[in-house]
Amino acid sequence: MLRTTSKIIAAALATAAFVVAGPAIIGGKKVKPVAPVTPEEISKEDAAKLDTVDLGAGCFWCIEAVLERIKGVKSVESGYMGGHVKNPTYKQISGGDTGHAEIVRVKFDPAELSFENLLEVFWELHDPTTLNRQGADVGTQYRSAIFYHSDAQKKAAEASKAKKDKSGKFKNPIVTEITEASEYYPAEDYHQDFFEGNQNYPYCRAVIWPKLEKLGLLKEDE
Q1: What domain range is 59 assigned to?
Q2: Has 59 been annotated as catalytic?
Q3: In whole angstroms, what is the distance from residue 126 CA to residue 63 CA?
Q4: Percent of the chain with pLDDT over 70
Q5: Whole-number Å distance between alpha carbons of 57 and 144
Q6: How far, in Å, CA of 19 to CA of 194, rounded?
Q7: E strand segments, the chain
Q8: Suppose 206 and one of 12, 15, 53, 118 were both cysteines; which one would form an S-S bond, judging by CB atoms 3.0 to 4.6 Å apart?
Q9: Residue 205 is assigned to a structural domain of this protein
Q10: pTM for this entry
Q11: pLDDT at 7 over 60
């Protein structure tokens, strides 16, 4: 992830929020993120009911922070997929030479959240028309990607992509890759739930808070 001061400042100035330590001031109101809905633990019985998909949409801190707040999502873990190096480290990934994408492994309950509706959130939380880039984050590791786990997911992802392309929502064609899931590597511990422990980190303020606002995942702070 690129973290240069100039890019962070540029991104911050582009947001509508005036941010200070703690809650943000948006539209004259003090707001904060809604709480994550993912449970701390999942029983074996409940786990058997869940579907899994791996999604890339730029920085995995961003995807994780959004999807943990979507009803029906039960688990979100940051990791790496789609490359050619065994057991890659974040340092290797950051160089863009391993072929991996930063992704999140999402486990969701299809009885509460359909795969199609999960993809609707996916399209909203990033720009799927920019090749190997999300904002100031540039490189193949930031590519938009859906790594499917079944033929049904593949067909649904292709249909959803085609429908969104035809909708006119985006000015440019969607470049999201739709690929069968390959070997998954969990990211280092310090990346997991990064936003929850670092909400005031400049990158989180400049990039993640606006995503939460866009998706209606902020609430008035009392």
Answers
A1: 37-194
A2: yes
A3: 9
A4: 89
A5: 5
A6: 19
A7: 18-19, 24-26, 29-33, 51-57, 73-81, 101-108, 133-134, 137-138, 144-148, 177-180, 185-186, 218-220
A8: 12
A9: no
A10: 0.88
A11: no
Q: How many CB atoms are closer than 10 A to CB 165? A: 16
Total number of domains in the chain: 1
What is the Cβ-side half-sphere exposure of residue 18, based on CA atoms within 13 angstroms? Answer: 5
Q: 27 pLDDT band (50/70/90 cuts)?
A: low
For residue range 57-112, list pLDDT tens digits in order.
Answer: 999 999 999 999 999 999 999 999 999 999 999 999 999 889 999 999 999 999 99
The token duo for 87 is 């057991």
List phi, psi (to 5°) of 200.
-95, 0
Note whether residue 216 is domain-resident: no
What's the DSSP call for residue 207?
I
Phi, psi of 129, deg, nearest 5: -100, -5
What are the tens digits of pLDDT across the range 183-211? Answer: 999 999 999 999 999 999 999 999 999 99
| Numbers of helices and strands, H then E, in the chain | 9, 12
Residue 14 lies in a domain: no
Among residues 154, 137, 123, the alpha carbon closest in space to that of 53 is found at 154
Rounded CA separation 76/61 (Å) = 10
Q: Is residue 14 pLDDT above 50, yes or no?
A: no
Query: Based on the number of CB atoms within 10 Å of its own CB, is 59 exposed (0-12), middle (13-18) or buried (19 or more)?
Result: buried
Three-class SS state of 71: coil
Token pair 């922070």 is at which residue? Answer: 65
CA-based end-to-end distance of the chain:
34
Q: Is residue 104 part of a domain?
A: yes
51: domain CATH number is 3.30.1060.10
